[in-house]
Every structure is written in C-alpha cells, then in structure tokens.
Amino acid sequence: MLPTETLIPFTAAAILLCLAPGPDNIFVLTQSALRGKRAGLSVMFGLCTGLIGHSAAVALGVAVIFQTSALAFTILKLIGAAYLVYLAWQAFRAPAVPLTATGNDTPEFGKLYRRGIIMNITNPKVSIFFLAFLPQFADPALGPIAPQILLLGLVFILSTILVFGAVALLAGTLGEWLNRSEKIQVIMNRLAGTVFVALALKLATAER
C-alpha cells in the first residue's frame, strides 16, 4: 500500500493533467455537446477502460516496446489516426437528430463506450506517458513494483472520472440547449468532424 504522502501529490498531479486540454477530454466534450450527458459519460468510461489497459501494460513492461520500437509506435499511432479520420467522416455526414430520439438508445451508448476504448488504446503516447509518469511514484522499498503501478493507475483513472465526468455534465447541459436548433446541431457536427481531423493529424505526426 502506498503511503498518503505519495498518493496525495500523485492525485493532485493526475487531476491537473486531466484538466489540461487533450484529445481525450476534447472527445468527451464534443460527444457530450452533440449527444447529451449520457453519451459523454459513456465515452468517458470507455476512455477509462483503455487506461486500465495502459496501466497493465506499464506494470507488465509491455509499454517499453512502444518506447523502444519505432515500428510498433508508428503502426499503433497510424491505426489510431485512421480511426479518428473515420469518426470525422461520420461526423461530417451526420444529420441533425433531436436528443430525445437517441436518449434511450442503449446500443448507441455501447458504441460510444467502445469508441472511447479504441481511441485510448490506439494512442501509444498514453502508454509512454504512463511509463514515464507512474514509476516516479513507486518505491521498491515498499514491495513489488507491479501492484504499486496498478494502484497508481487506478488512482489516475478515478481522477479522470472526476474531471471528465464534470466536463461531460457541463458540455451535455450546454449541448441540450444548443441542439434545440437543427442548424446549430449540423454546425456542431461539422465542428466535431474538424476536431477529429485535427486530432488525427496530431496523432499521425506524433513523435515518441
């Protein structure tokens, strides 16, 4: 078990990192604004599920592959960029649909949850970030490193839920008001598509 003097600064750092604008919280924001709070929360939980995979990868040492292998890093980032382009294409083609029409559409929320997982898992920079960040707070004197890494990953995920959940709720509230107009909803879809394209370009040109 990690001591309080380690967990408190780690949690504070995690929250600040989650607050910094990035692909994941922008994704949560756009989906919440377009499809409502539940959609944003579905994406958020998908992203956090992806973080479980990254935490496990660091604990098991798999993330080192993406740090040392340019080929593995390039392949994964291109897959992620291609997926973002696919999401952009869908956003540009999306018609204006009232939120009430999809409010109880469980499969839609399942799809958004899976999108969150795929978007997070296919970003090798998250694994490399975790590989650089989490071990700084682990202490070999406290026992095996792997369980400590997993605990730190869990704390980071809880911090992400706190911050991204707030983003989803606030953006969803604003989106419910904006989506009363079909014209505004079409504009928001186009903006979301543009954001996805920008994120795809950023990921495709990312360096290790």
Could you please describe the fold and organization of this structure?
It is a single chain. This protein is mostly helical. It has one domain (34-204). Helices cover 82% and strands 0% of the residues. Helix 1 runs parallel beside helix 9, helix 3 runs parallel beside helix 7 (106-121) and helix 3 (37-60) crosses helix 8. It is globular and about 60 Å long.
SSE topology:
Blueprint: H1 4-19, H2 23-35, H3 37-60, H4 63-68, H5 70-93, H6 99-102, H7 106-121, H8 124-133, H9 145-178, H10 182-204
Helix pairs in contact: 1-9, 2-3, 2-9, 2-10, 3-7, 3-8, 3-9, 5-10
Question: Roughly what fraction of the amino acids lie in strands?
Answer: under 5%
Instruction: Characterize the biggest β-sheet.
Output: none
Average pLDDT, all residues: 82
Rg over CA atoms: 18 Å
**Structure classification:** mainly alpha
Tell me the helix content.
over 70%
Shape: globular
Note the run of SSEs as H and E: HHHHHHHHHH
- Tally of distinct domains: 1
Oligomeric state of this protein: single chain
Per DSSP E runs of 2 or more residues, the count of β-strands stands at 0
**How many helical elements?**
10
For the termini, the CA-CA separation is 32 Å
Low-confidence stretches: 99-107
